[in-house]
Write a structure and sequence with these properties.
Strand content: 5-15%
Largest sheet: 4 strands, parallel
Order of helices and strands: HHHEEHEHEHEHEH
Shape: globular
CATH architecture of the largest domain: 3-Layer(aba) Sandwich
Distance between the termini: 67 Å
Radius of gyration: 21 Å
Keywords: DNA damage, DNA recombination, DNA repair, Metal-binding, Zinc, Zinc-finger
Structural class: alpha/beta
Helix content: 40-55%
Number of helices: 8
Strand order of the largest sheet: 4-3-5-6
Protein name: Recombination protein RecR
Function: May play a role in DNA repair. It seems to be involved in an RecBC-independent recombinational process of DNA repair. It may act with RecF and RecO.
GO biological process, one term: DNA repair
Family: Belongs to the RecR family.
Length: 199
């Protein structure tokens, strides 16, 4: 027996396709939109439509942009000789929020994962090598995750850039601030030990 009209079910099914959204959340969203003012629903619908039409990929760093080149690549205050390599626009946004990086980015749009059929050719490594080959990049900071795929991608990039006069570094990883050692996983502890420094 159906509890909702078919239009509600269609909307709930669409919400369920979104990552991290289950049946109950989808139902809550649909119920909210049903009772929301028409102007709010229209604004949401318009924003979704504009997202696909107006958001593109920066031709330099492959991050999201509403112009041919993104705001970070266009910013003369950024150090274009310092390139941080990340997996996704979300990773770039996380680094930006920290305020700790003043260079530019290169978004791989994925990680090497042979199990999923993703090799170096399927992500933006070729374009990174071309940027370095152009001669303006002084340092490449690899900021991929410490997962198996992230480490494999970092190793591949390091090897791919060996023949160039560029400094290749990897962001440090290890014990978070305020973290207790007894709760830290073994891989994180190993990385923290390997990245130890003088005090």
């Amino acid at each position: 027996m159906k509890h909702y009209p078919e239009a509600m079910y269609r909307l709930i099914r669409q919400f369920c396709k979104l990552p991290g959204i289950g049946q109950k959340s989808a139902e809550r969203f649909a119920m909210y939109l049903l009772s929301a003012p028409d102007t709010e629903v229209a604004a949401l619908s318009k924003s979704i439509g504009e997202l696909k039409k107006q958001v593109t990929v920066c031709k330099t760093c492959f991050c999201l942009s509403d112009q041919e080149t993104c705001a970070i690549c266009r910013d003369p205050g950024r150090d274009s000789g310092l390139v941080c390599v990340v997996e996704s626009p979300a990773d770039m946004a996380a680094i930006e929020k920290s305020g700790a990086f003043t260079g530019v980015y290169h978004v791989l749009q994925g990680l090497i994962s042979p199990m999923d059929g993703i090799g170096p050719e399927e992500i933006r490594i070729r374009e990174l090598v071309a940027r370095v080959r152009a001669g303006t990049v002084k340092e490449v900071v690899i900021a991929t995750s410490t997962s198996v795929e992230g480490e494999a991608t970092a190793d591949y990039i390091d090897k791919a850039l060996k023949s160039f006069e560029v400094n290749v570094t990897r962001i440090a990883s290890g014990v978070p601030m305020g973290g207790e050692l007894k709760y830290i996983d073994q891989v994180t502890l190993k990385k923290a030990m390997e990245a130890r420094r003088a005090v």
